[in-house]
Write a structure and sequence with these properties.
Structural class of chain A: alpha+beta
Number of helices of chain B: 11
Largest sheet of chain A: 3 strands, antiparallel
Mean pLDDT of chain A: 86
Helix content of chain B: 10-25%
Distance between the termini of chain B: 108 Å
Largest interface: A-B, 24 and 19 residues
Mean pLDDT of chain B: 84
Radius of gyration of chain B: 33 Å
Oligomer: heterodimer
Shape of chain B: extended
Largest sheet of chain B: 13 strands, mixed
Radius of gyration of chain A: 16 Å
Structural class of chain B: alpha+beta
Helix content of chain A: 25-40%
Low-confidence stretches of chain B: 284-288
Low-confidence stretches of chain A: none
Distance between the termini of chain A: 40 Å
Strand content of chain B: 25-35%
Order of helices and strands of chain A: HEEHHEEE
Number of strands of chain B: 31
Chain lengths: 134, 613
């Protein structure tokens, strides 16, 4: 790919073919389908962060596992460790996602953790970001 | 596409198979609706949840199936239920057993110038007496009657005390088996009858129900299942009960039909459930003998009588299954005990206060009677063994499977053999048994499947004896409950061939001749011990040579000669036998009719000689 060839997803060309489902599950028929790979990956990432390790049957390591840190004492070292841990898990679960920027912010007064992720999809022009609050 | 045309795979077993097939199913039938099957997608969450449910349901299905087979069931209650279904009663405890020696003194009396034991002072101890040590109670289930002695129940008599050179007191010894158990009593008051009423007895280490009696004194019999009407009944062998009886069996074995019956089962390790039937005390339908008018009486339609499956234990179809007790108080006596802690050391069961002895005769002098009472002692020369917890799951499984194989029916000749040997000794004891089909010549044709059961008993000296009439009648009654309808069993006496042995040996230098000779005689006694000798067992002379040759000090066995000993006047069997004619290739064969070789008087019939080289 010397000249920066870009990959496209064939299913994106078929506008009638659904790929995944959107989160949250609040569509008219519970499920609301998405039709672009970009949307599917974004929802998969949200699903990843909302899942705690151990929740998925026979896939116990899947999930961001951030919810357990809400009431923990968060030092800079802890956040650094968390950041590395999440990045590693993302690379394992999403091999085609390149993490551009991952910020894990804490709001001690509100017992809140905010995850802000900027990512790109390898070999495509797709770049997006998500922000999830715990 | 119609739902009915969809290809659904019904043979998925586990999570991965369900997951893979659901993905295939979605790809096949919903290609436009969903196509992201990566593990991270929310849609896969639902597919995996469905797979999880399928996996769990499969597990339960497998588990249900597994728990339905005695070979594979793992849950205790299921194994218990399956064992009961096959007729095996699991044990929740195992009592230890021990041989107890019971001693009493008897005063001597002068009879014709000889001092002999005065059996007027012989004690009788009732069944189910107990002997205690500091921690355990042992139960002797059999009665002890010092006034009688037999091959099954010998009494050892020795001189205990002398005045001058005359015996003043004799010491009598009897041996009984005892189990570590305590008799417990529970009363159950019942007013109105309730069909198939159950009552629970809660106690740890319940061994079995000893008996149940109602207010009127009726004894209720335990049966394997409530449909069973016939039970064995013991009647003391007295002149009144059987004027022609012999003395070889203390009890006569009878079969009686009873409506007063109950069945038991453990519903947990500490709870024994007793269940009674559903009949009314006024219902006499079960008393009647089967005839064309009452067989199938309870069936609603006449046509059903043709195809109904009848059993001799329930041919009326009235469904009463015994009487439901009413307006009475049942006294339930049951045994508890056992466990590993019930194995006690030797010489520790010496407390005989629980034995409650009495004399068979009354009007005996008080002083002597009290002395005799106080002379009653007990001891266990060996430690008790066998005490442990209840059946393990694996033991229940294996015992049940072995019980299924026996089916409580005598089918093969060996079934009859084992059944005959298993008859309780109260009814007389069969020492040797051999079963075979009658020998037919080529011209004969048998129209009846007859089996010949040859038996022998033992006399009070431990010598082989022909079984008496009472013993044979008891055996006949006992076998009748397990006999196939087409089988006819003829109980016959086997033949006893008494023999003597003469042998010559050369002893090595530097060995004491008498000592080597004594060892050889002891070795031959062991070899011909009646306990280990079987009917129709040949004598291999070569084995005898080898046996003697191995004894330390024996250089060469020069000769071994087996002689026949016969003649009632000499105390031997009435049947003579041609030993030389029956010897082929150093093997002495028994007769064609079942017989057994016996050295009746080993001390005088085994003779050895040391000869020079």
């Amino acid at each position: 790919m010397a000249f920066g060839e870009q990959q496209i997803f064939p299913s994106d060309l078929d506008v009638s073919q659904a790929i995944g489902i959107n989160l949250p599950l609040n569509g008219p028929a519970v499920f609301k389908s998405n039709y672009q790979t970009k949307d599917a990956i974004k929802n998969n990432l949200i699903n990843f962060f909302l899942t705690n390790p151990g929740e998925r049957y026979l896939n116990p390591e899947f999930g961001g596992g951030l919810r357990q840190f809400i009431f923990e004492q968060m030092s800079n070292n802890t956040i650094q460790t968390l950041n590395e841990d999440v990045s590693e898990k993302l690379s394992e679960s999403f091999p085609n996602v390149n993490v551009e920027k991952l910020d894990i912010l804490r709001e001690d007064d509100n017992n809140t953790i905010i995850v802000s992720l900027t990512y790109s999809i390898i070999n495509t022009n797709i770049e997006d970001n998500i922000s999830i609050q715990f | 596409m119609s739902d009915t045309n969809r290809n659904i795979n019904y043979i998925n077993r586990d999570f991965n198979e369900f997951r893979g097939n659901l993905i295939n199913f979605t790809q096949t039938y919903f290609p436009q609706t969903y196509s992201d099957f990566s593990p991270t997608s929310p849609g896969m969450l639902f597919i995996e949840q469905a797979s999880y449910v399928g996996d769990v349901l499969s597990f339960y299905l497998d588990n249900q199936l597994q728990e339905g087979f005695i070979q594979y069931a793992r849950q205790t209650n299921n194994v218990f239920e399956l064992a009961y279904m096959f007729g095996y009663k699991p044990k929740t405890t195992s009592a230890s057993q021990v041989d107890i020696e019971i001693f009493q003194q008897l005063p001597a009396k002068n009879v014709g110038g000889n001092m002999v034991p005065d059996y007027d002072y012989a004690l009788y101890i009732t069944p189910n007496s107990t002997i205690n040590n500091s921690a355990q109670s042992f139960l002797i289930q059999d009665s002890i009657d010092f006034s009688r002695s037999s091959s099954q129940d010998p009494t050892e008599v020795t001189v205990y005390q002398t005045v001058g050179d005359q015996p003043q007191y004799f010491l009598l010894k009897k041996t009984r088996k005892a189990i570590s158990a305590t008799v417990n009593t529970q009363k159950i008051s019942i007013t109105s009858p309730t069909p198939f009423q159950t009552y629970n007895i809660n106690n740890s280490n319940i061994i079995k129900i000893l008996d149940i009696k109602d207010t009127e004194g009726n004894t209720w019999s335990e049966v394997d299942h409530l449909g069973q009407e016939m039970v064995f009944n013991s009647v003391k062998n007295t002149n009144i009960n059987d004027p022609n009886s012999g003395t070889d069996a203390p009890y006569l074995l009878k079969i009686k039909k009873t409506q007063l019956r109950f069945a038991t089962r453990f519903i947990s390790l500490g709870t024994l459930q007793i269940q009674f039937g559903a009949g009314s005390p006024n219902d006499t339908t079960e008393e009647i003998i089967p005839n064309p008018n009452n067989v199938g009486l309870g069936l609603p339609f006449k046509q059903d009588k043709l195809t109904a499956a009848y059993s001799p234990t329930n041919f009326l179809y009235t469904g009463t299954y015994g009487i439901a007790p009413s307006n009475t108080t049942l006294t339930v006596r049951y045994l508890s005990g056992g466990g590993i802690e019930s194995n006690v050391e030797a010489n520790t069961l010496n407390n005989s206060t629980g034995l409650s002895p009495k004399f068979n005769n009354s009007n005996l002098p008080t002083t002597t009677a009290n002395y005799i009472f106080s002379s009653l002692t007990t001891n266990n020369p060996l430690p008790s063994t066998g005490g442990k917890g209840g059946d393990t799951i694996e033991e229940i499984r294996q015992n049940t499977l072995s019980l299924v194989a026996s089916q409580k029916r005598s089918v093969t000749p060996n079934d009859y053999l084992i059944r005959a040997l298993s008859m309780p000794s109260d009814y007389g004891s069969i020492s040797k048994a051999y079963i075979e089909k009658p020998k037919l010549t080529d011209e004969q044709i048998s129209t009846v499947e007859t089996l010949c059961l040859y038996v022998l008993s033992l006399n009070s000296n431990g010598q082989l004896e022909y079984a008496g009439r009472t013993l044979k009648n008891n055996l006949k009654t006992y076998l009748s409950q397990y006999r196939m309808i087409g089988d006819s069993v003829e109980i016959k006496d086997a033949y006893i061939i008494n023999i003597g042995i003469e042998f010559e040996i050369i002893v090595l230098p530097n060995f004491n001749n008498n000592r080597v000779l004594s060892t050889c005689i002891t070795s031959l006694k062991d070899h011909f011990n009646t306990d280990i000798w079987q009917l129709n067992q040949p004598i291999f002379l070569r084995d005898l040579y080898v046996r003697l040759d191995r004894i330390e000090g024996v250089q060469t066995v020069k000769n071994i000669k087996i002689n026949n000993k016969a003649g009632i006047s000499s105390g031997y069997s009435q049947y003579a036998y041609d030993i030389d004619g029956a010897t082929q290739n150093q093997v002495i064969y028994p007769s064609l009719d079942p017989s057994i070789f016996e050295i009746r008087y080993p001390n005088q019939d085994i003779k050895g000689r040391v000869v020079p080289l």
